[in-house]
């Protein structure tokens, strides 16, 4: 018999939820991570008393009551509601696309006026069945909003024109004919008081965690420790990129401490023009209504991933979808290995969906 029932590769949200549930059921778990900290990309660290989201802003939101209750076991959540603003060459618009946005853009006041304006622009563009992100966007919100708030931002974010991107990406954003600036259509939303790292720490309480352990560099010896492996790293890296490399978008953050208590008045400001080199600026203290004398901001630069970078977003276009399907087939042939999470499943996962997926899999595993 091996020393552990499960070797969990990756101490991010998927790995932590799996480990927590398996350990609770009496399984012997070892969690490893190649970084020097737990919590994966939801890692937060205190700088000047402010919880900084080191790998990008994470706002917890879900419609699933069970998932909401699940995370509330590990942290208390505040009432933060995401409502980013878009800065287009100094013009400020509310997001997601709602009556505030339409009013600022066109001077329209009623939902009927806004709908008529969008219909007119959709007709002028002649779109009946949207085939890509550009057509989908114009058909949802018209040409003006597409040009000012979507085209430049999306081009920077994905490094591809909107005509080459799948329409589902833009469908992540609500379009509302009410004056409601809540970015998410979610019943439950908030940020864990004290940051995400503390929440993941709680999930991993009592479970052995080894940091700065590179699984793929020492795979055979690590595999020998456990009956089964839960792998949450990039699926293509697991197979030595033998079918080719999947594409990811990477993000670089320029983080600065500023000697002011309030830099931009909002946690998230998107720069939606094509010329500003970064996509957005995050002012971390506003996630927790911070009153510290200083502030910490991160400018977010999007780039194509290359080996050695951190992979963030899977590129869900046709080419990568087809390649992932092949890796998935390979993955299914790996006895005793579970592939999970954003990188293991090459999926643009929100946090609540990651938790749902990990809970489903652990339930199947434990019978
Ligand atoms: N998007 C946009 N303008 C914005 C914000 C978002 O065009 O100001 C588009 C863009 O294509 C982006 C997608 O909407 O990739 C999804 O945005 P979301 O905020 O969900 O991205 P995430 O927070 O996951 O980076």
Describe the structure.
- By secondary structure, this protein is α/β, with parallel strands linked by helices.
- The chain is 33% helix and 21% strand.
- The strands form four sheets. The chain has a seven-stranded mixed β-sheet with strand order 7-6-12-13-14-11-15. The chain has a five-stranded parallel β-sheet with strand order 9-2-1-10-16, with helices on one face. A two-stranded antiparallel ribbon has the order 3-4.
- Strand 3 and strand 4 form a beta hairpin.
- The chain is globular, with a radius of gyration of 22 Å.
- The protein starts with a strand and ends with a helix.
How would you describe this structure in keywords?
single chain; 367 residues; alpha/beta; seven-stranded mixed β-sheet; five-stranded parallel β-sheet; binds uridine-5'-diphosphate
